Amino acid sequence: MPRQTSILDPETPHQTAWPARVNGTHQTPLLDRCRRRVTYLRLSLTEACAMRCVYCRPRRHGVAMDRPLLSVHEIGQLVEHLTAHHGLRKVRLTGGDPTSRPDLTAIIERIAAVPGIEDLAMTTHGLTLAGHAAEYARAGLRRVNVSLDTLDRDRFEKMTGVDGLTNMLAGLEAAESAGLHPIRINTVVVRGRNDGDLADLARWSARRGWDIRFIELMPMGPLAAEWADRYVPEAEMRRSLGPIVRDWEPIDQGHDAARRYRVTFEDGSTTTLGFITPMSCNFCAACNRIRIASDATLYPCLMDRPGPSLLPALRPRFDAEAIDRLIETGLSNKRPEHPAQGHVAMVQLGG
Ligand code: SAM
């Protein structure tokens, strides 16, 4: 019988291209069942968020106060282990909103100090960045993605439940002054809500030198039932930008989730526009991520059912072998492509 290869098997073919020792430590890559190598962790720090985005947070979604949030120490041990032994290179903090955690600066400091972490980023609503961006940058945060769906104050409030456009724009300025670079804007496009705002957002972000990514609505969370009516595919988004864009030149996507284009506007100025297209053209073949929710549940994929909880391997003390077994179980169930329908709302595991 052919020998069964393991996801954490040092003798798998991928191992030939993998450094056997990094900083004197033996490494085995994390491979899912389709042999995609995981190097990127999206870590949700909390389900708490000041915003109530219509597509993200179910109306009655409360945050259970008795949920076991991972501590700074536990997060540090986990990231250290995955980096030293399994080739993790990149961490993105998400939520809920990561800025809802009072110990966020300590978390950033702890992860940034892990040898081998090459990129530490955060996705946030940006409402509090004006007061904290410099502190996060000093702690070791490299860059931020800020979610902004419209530049119209009333529409912003209707979509997010918060009159926060001014604060968010101030937060973006502060992030830039703090050297958090590049700044990326994430815009979820929802028919009947902000599908008429794309041209304004594209021109505005180009003027500021900030990358914008228009995101296709995913069938998960509060708009899942009316998804077919609310979803705007990339092709339609590009058509709506037609009147202001003269030329689209595709840029190689690599592991980036966004399909990116170098565009020339009608006035001759140029910029880069991105589209995140999980529904019309998924990027699953290049997926290099795993997700861990704030209660330590592993999600092999944003839209799939939850995987195992890592908590028993983190408490009462860190157990590296148990972590490896649980992650192996999770990755062995990662499908070639995401399912058609999400199982939880994005606020529960972080986008
Ligand atoms: N609170 C942070 C923020 O506002 O960016 C981080 C968490 S939020 C869940 C991460 C991203 O998921 C945001 O850009 C949000 O717009 C996006 N998102 C939430 N629900 C979505 C859905 N159903 N389809 C597509 N994107 C969604």
For this structure, what is the CATH homologous superfamily? Aldolase class I
- DSSP summary, beta strand count: 15
> Please, how many helices?
11
Ligands present: S-adenosylmethionine
Distance, first to last CA: 42 Å
Under CATH, the topology is which? TIM Barrel
Q: Major β-sheet, in short?
A: 11 strands, mixed
- Mean pLDDT across the residues is 90
The coarse silhouette is globular
Low-pLDDT segments: 1-21
Cα radius of gyration in angstroms: 20 Å
Provide a quick synopsis of the model.
The chain has 351 residues and is α/β, with parallel strands linked by helices. Helices cover 28% and strands 20% of the residues.
Q: Can you walk through the features of this model?
A:
- 42% of the residues are buried.
- The strands form 3 sheets. Strands 11-12-13-10-9-8-7-6-5-14-15 form an 11-stranded mixed sheet.
- The chain is α/β, with parallel strands linked by helices and 351 residues long.
- The chain has helices spanning 72-86, 104-112, 129-139, 153-160, 165-177, 198-208, 227-230, 234-241, 311-314, 320-332, 346-349; strands spanning 21-22, 25-26, 30-31, 37-38, 40-44, 90-94, 119-124, 143-147, 184-189, 211-216, 245-251, 258-265, 270-276, 289-292, 298-299.
- The chain contains 11 helices and 15 strands.
- It has a single domain (31-348), classed as TIM Barrel.
- It binds S-adenosylmethionine.
- The site of S-adenosylmethionine (SAM) has 21 residues, from strand 7, strand 9 and helix 11.
